[in-house]
Design a protein that fits this description.
The complex is a heterodimer of chains A (about 250) and B (about 525). Chain A has about 250 residues and is α/β, with parallel strands linked by helices. Chain A has 9 helices and 10 strands. Helices cover about 75% and strands about 0% of the residues of chain B. The relative contact order of chain B is 0.09. Classes of the chains: A alpha/beta (about 250), B mainly alpha (about 525).
């Protein structure tokens, strides 16, 4: 199976504090891949590195077979898109201007562009905010707008860092519809989320990141086996929380 | 609780200090002491002239002229206080966090109002007024009245500044037009102003001018000479009442601002035509950056000052009939001031306007290096055009006073020196630009940095433009070496701009996520 992402012995530290140590991971092409882990496990750092926003100490990263680095910078950027947490938007633009700006950058043809933008905004319940200034939007709307921008750039690999946080149930359903359609077209999607029910339903493969390393990789088969008796949350807890908290902890409460 | 607030603000301030900021603060502090001593000595002179034997030493001195000078000084002092009164100590963005930690809203508003009074710059003006008033009153019994007047004066200015933006925002186009018209009239009539006929006519009208000045804020403040007991008591009562109502208003405004930060409501961007035009002219990356710079309310005021200052002083300094010609380097300083002012506006905090947004831009399928270079060159274009215009104008207006080479080389060197300074500062002193619209609460370029850059411009002008007589040839030689050297340094820096960006700016942007 082709690999959309290949990470070999990646090391990253902030000052003296290692965040990722000899980290390796392979993500197959065309899958929706879930990366879960407790707070501070290094998920966002990993997404930052993969999207080229964060430097790393050493190791090798390949995206769709292209080695991450200066020589392939442009080609990789053309193939990826992301929704980061918090979403990165142009605060002083209107939603309409922002999406058109994105289309200009990614050279999306002008013919039919407005229709695409309007239908996407409408589908995700953002139509009424099309001409609102982005800094006035609620956190959920901002997240959805960032999602729209990522979709419009027609990526082959899509990174989503906490994409469903502060979003209503109906919009989550619609985002899932879009993601499934993208997967049908061969797009690889990497999702980090703390909402494990969504990850459970949406993702093909899931990896659990804890203490700077992948402690479990659950592909379709192993999940089938494990999830016979337990939900993803229970599996996650069993891996991450090896020691149960003692009953006298926080007794003062 | 007030002590806790002070401690919290001190910690915030302390953690924001870097070595460069500390240096700027020390120089700024020294400058403030210098200004303070100048103000106090001027006051002593003006007051002593009014009553003492000293006036006999000056032939030109008449009581009428003395009164005029005193009133003019008082009004200028009041205007300066108005412009420089600093309400940044309120630090609303930071202090609102205290509300979520159990600090009562009413108490916080009250404490912040008190804290603002004690900013060093505010204290400097208040002490100056106190000395001014006490010298006029001439008796220690009037200390309470003088203190009351000083506090009320500060309160009035504080109130106006809290509200002036709304007024300015609604009428900014008209205000801009009026300022431009005044400048135009002033500049076109500069010769008439300095003609002898004007001065003699001016002298005749001194008393009427003085009576107008006495009704302006500075004049009103100084108009209370040794009041009688009835006026004294009435004055105190009026002051107490006025103070009460002003404080009520302050606390109400602070409370409102704490609950709804101004930045959320008053951002005045209109994306669309202007943004599209800038993106078309300068490219998407530089266009967006320039749009952000010129959209920031503080920069508009800064830009206005940068234009007004030389437009006022260049005609003054080269007016042939003024009989008081400025030194050559001052004239050239005024010419270079506009390009440097705009350079400061565009290049300082180059990555602070969009900070987090930059992370989005860096994901675009355009080389990071290309984006950064486009931004830098786009931002430099307007100052560079202004430099060319200033140089050409100098050559036409001042053909005899200076040699072509000294003007061109001097201009180029100072311009390059400031590029080097701002490049260094952009990467090493990265500062996130806040989008609060009331400029004085969060200036893009702080008063201290502005002052020091002004001093630096003056010092460089004095070094570069001054004629060294028989050593002039060596100066020109040094300029001939330094100009290409600085140009080469800038070229190398821009060529490798991605490196300082990745090592210094990127981690900060990511950490601010």
């Amino acid at each position: 199976m082709e690999r959309a992402i290949e990470i070999n012995n990646l090391n990253k530290s902030y000052g003296n504090k290692p965040v990722l140590k000899d980290f390796s991971l392979n993500v197959p092409s065309g899958k929706i891949f879930g990366l879960i882990g407790p707070n501070g496990a290094g998920k966002s750092t990993l997404i930052g590195i993969l999207t080229g926003l964060l430097d790393y100490d050493d190791g090798e990263i390949f995206i769709n077979g292209l080695k991450l680095g200066e020589e392939n910078e442009l080609e990789i950027k053309r193939q990826i898109a992301s929704v980061l947490q918090p979403p990165l938007l142009f605060e002083h633009f209107t939603a309409h201007d922002f999406l058109h700006y994105i289309c200009d950058i990614y050279e999306i043809e002008k013919n039919g562009r407005q229709d695409k933008i309007a239908s996407l905004l409408d589908f995700l319940g953002l139509k009424e905010f099309e001409h609102a200034k982005i800094n006035k939007l609620s956190s959920g709307s901002r997240k959805k707008l960032s999602f729209c921008a990522a979709i419009l750039s027609k990526p082959q690999v899509l990174f989503l860092d906490e994409p469903f946080e502060s979003i209503d149930v109906i919009s989550i359903g619609r985002m899932k519809t879009i993601l499934n359609r993208l997967q049908e077209k061969g797009v690889t999607i990497i999702i980090t989320s703390h909402i494990l029910e969504i990850v459970e339903n949406l993702c093909d493969d899931i990896a659990i990141l804890h203490n700077r390393e992948i402690i479990a990789y659950l592909d379709a088969e192993s999940r089938k086996e494990l999830q016979k008796d337990a939900t993803l949350s229970e599996i996650f807890e069993s891996y991450v929380e090896m020691e149960k908290p003692q009953s006298d902890v926080l007794g003062w409460l | 609780m007030f002590i806790k607030l002070l401690k919290y603000n001190w910690q915030v301030f302390r953690h924001s200090l870097t070595a460069a900021k500390l240096f700027v603060l020390i120089v700024y502090g020294l400058l403030l002491i210098l200004i303070f001593s100048q103000l106090i000595s001027t006051i002593f002179l003006l007051v002593t002239l009014q009553s003492g034997e000293l006036s006999k030493l000056f032939e030109w001195y008449t009581p009428e002229r003395g009164r005029f000078l005193l009133l003019a000084f008082a009004n200028i002092l009041w205007l300066s206080q108005f412009f420089f009164t600093n309400i940044r100590l309120l630090n609303l963005q930071e202090n609102r966090k205290l509300l979520s930690m159990g600090y009562p809203l009413q108490k916080l508003s009250r404490h912040l109002s008190v804290m603002a009074f004690f900013h060093p710059l505010n204290l400097l003006f208040s002490i100056t007024w106190f000395v001014f008033l006490m010298l006029q009153f001439g008796s220690i019994h009037f200390v309470p009245l003088a203190l009351a007047i000083v506090i009320i004066n500060f309160s009035i200015i504080f109130s106006i500044k809290f509200r002036v933006l709304t007024v300015f925002k609604n009428y900014q186009k008209w205000a801009f037009l009026i300022v431009l018209t005044v400048i135009f009239i002033f500049a076109s009539s500069i010769n008439d102003i300095f003609s002898t006929a004007f001065f003699s006519a001016f002298d005749l009208h001194l008393s009427s001018i003085s009576s107008i000045l006495s009704f302006l804020p500075g004049g009103l403040l100084t108009g209370t000479h040794s009041p009688s007991i009835i006026i004294y008591i009435t004055g105190i009562i009026c002051c107490v009442l006025l103070f009460y109502y002003l404080q009520k208003d302050h606390i109400k405004s602070t409370r409102k601002a704490l609950q709804a930060p101004v930045g959320d409501n008053l951002i005045t961007n209109k994306t669309g035509k202007l943004k599209n035009l800038l993106c078309k002219w300068f490219g998407n990356h530089a266009g967006k950056y320039i749009y952000y710079v010129i959209s920031h309310p503080y920069n508009r005021i800064h830009g206005l000052f940068v234009v007004v200052f030389p437009l006022l002083y260049i005609p003054l300094s080269i007016a042939p009939s003024s009989g008081n010609e400025a030194p050559q380097f001052i004239i050239l300083f005024f010419f270079i001031y506009m390009p440097l002012g705009f350079q400061m506006l565009f290049l300082a905090n180059m990555y602070g306007y969009e900070n987090r947004e930059l992370l989005r831009e860096l994901q675009f399928p355009v080389l990071v290096k290309q984006q950064l270079q486009e931004r830098f060159l786009g931002a430099l274009l307007l100052p560079a055009v202004l430099l060319v215009i200033a140089s050409v104008t100098e050559l036409f207006l001042l053909p005899e006073a200076f040699s072509v080479s000294s003007i061109l080389l001097g201009n180029l060197l100072i311009f390059e020196a400031f590029i080097v300074l701002f490049l260094w500062s952009t990467f090493n002193q990265y500062k996130k630009v806040k989008w609060v619209s009331f400029s004085f609460t969060s200036p893009v370029i702080s008063q201290s940095v502005g002052f020091i850059c002004g001093l630096l411009m003056l010092a460089l002008s004095a070094t570069v433009y001054i004629s060294y007589g028989s050593f002039e040839i060596y100066k020109q030689g040094a300029l001939l070496i330094l100009v290409p050297l600085a140009a080469f340094w800038i070229y190398r820096y821009i060529k490798n701009i991605q490196q300082p960006f990745s090592s210094k700016i990127m981690p900060r942007l990511w950490n601010e996520l």
